[in-house]
Input
Amino acid sequence: MDVEELLGRLVAWPTVSDQPVTGIAAELANRLEDVGMRVERLDADTPGKCNLVCTAGPQGTDGIVLSGHMDVVPVVGQPWTSDPFTLTRRDDRLVGRGSCDMKAFLAAIVVALARTPPRDLKRELVLAFTHDEEVGCLGSRALADRFAAEGRTLPSLALIGEPTSFQMLRMHPGHVAAKITCAGLAAHSSKPDLGRNAIRLAGKVLDALDALADRWRLDVRFPELLERPFVVMNVATIHGGNAVNIVPDRCVIDVGFRPLPGMAPDALFEELRDAVEPLGDVRAELIRVTPAMLTPSGTPLEALLRPWASSPETAAASFATDGGNFERLGVRTIVFGPGSIDVAHKADEYVPVGELHRAVDVVEEVVARRCREA
Ligand SMILES: [Zn+2]
Output
């Protein structure tokens, strides 16, 4: 099986977050069964969504997890110059949605295992393919919850092949999404004194959020790894009011912030709530937590990857990955893969052909060294 051809097939599944991933999962499952892996589909509560867990080798032995997400970000409104779901070769680039983020790594895994089937492994190989990574690592969270509830374990090391241009990334901040609802009292705009303006209240909330963000900036951690070594905050959306002649009775703010490893996301949310709720009729809700990730330097996986890496040093990712959820199961992840995060999520996303082929070699060697050698 040619890796470029397989990548083309995977890109052709338009697995944006409002679409199913069961089709691409079935294609991957068939191919991995063909190379002799045990395949388990873990269905989500949402129809059309599932994780895929494939294993080979003696169960419970400490080999490696290779992981990637099957979903991609939307293409709507982006200036694509070719069909995003038809992988198109342009010079040394393979252009298509998900080409680098991160179906290249999925294709590389399948092709590496077809080249050298995972027979007679001494240690367990686990493939964990997830859904809805791009909308908050929902699949890996469900997977971690399920494994924890069932007392199942994973190998202690994981490689997630997000596009890092083969740079080894061993930490990233998490993400917390919160919603703040400001309530007021509607009135005719000719008698504003009879109402309570929810948008004006939201203005006070924004000031309080700014003050909180300034305070969070003072708590500096991991300055050697992070460009912004503190919790960053983003006021992302604001919706309020209905008409120019009505005092608005409701204003809703979506805010996100990024806890660093070792910080308790819930405690940070409590700080946010304590900053805004005393301002009036204000309610803050925690919507979603994506955990941060921190893998100590010097893991055996780092040593295995170093010869392939674009730099001998490890670094931090600015984006969150499924690795934060795997960490809850005691798994130490390195994020390392073909393609560049700078072109992911954009129009004409691409993976360099050479990097795609190199990813096959990386997977083959990592499996050989980690699972075949005693
Ligand atoms: Zn990704």
About this structure: Residues 175-290 form a domain with the Alpha-Beta Plaits fold (CATH 3.30.70.360).
